[in-house]
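Retro notes (design track)

What went well: tokenization of the new backbones is finally stable.
What didn't: we kept losing track of which sequence belonged to which structure.
Fix going forward: every design gets posted as structure first, then sequence, in one message. First example under the new rule, 131 residues:
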């Protein structure tokens, strides 16, 4: 159900945010609607929208996708930090100024190659944006 989906995303997101001393985020229906609309296109590319954005494909559950984003922390260069392609999902996930998240997921099937997403395609939008 929608409530189970949003709870899974929030619980996993806020678990990792707490580990890095970032305040919990709240679910935002506007962000979720934006994310779902982008996910429906099944294109493996960022929307270019006004929010921070994380994408994941092929994970069985939203929590596993969030876990994968958090796992990028091992590549993060302390104390300098800064954005890098290899840690951008992690830094957005725990960005301290972010207060709201909304996500959408669509089953894109086996994909069609190229820029097509495959399996469960999860898009999460964050506001205010990090990175």
């Amino acid at each position: 159900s929608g409530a189970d989906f949003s709870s899974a995303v929030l619980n996993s997101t806020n678990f990792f945010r707490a580990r890095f001393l970032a305040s919990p985020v709240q679910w935002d229906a506007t962000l979720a609607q934006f994310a779902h609309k982008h996910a429906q296109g099944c294109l493996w590319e960022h929307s270019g929208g006004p929010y921070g954005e994380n994408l994941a494909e092929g994970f069985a559950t939203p929590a596993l996708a969030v876990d994968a984003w958090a796992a990028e922390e091992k590549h993060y260069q302390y104390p300098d930090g800064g954005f890098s392609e290899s840690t951008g999902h992690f830094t957005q996930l725990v960005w301290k100024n972010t207060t709201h998240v909304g996500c959408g997921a669509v089953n894109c099937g086996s994909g069609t190659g190229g820029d097509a997403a495959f399996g469960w395609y999860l898009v999460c939008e964050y506001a205010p944006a990090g990175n």
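Added context from the reviewer: The two ends are 31 Å apart (CA to CA).
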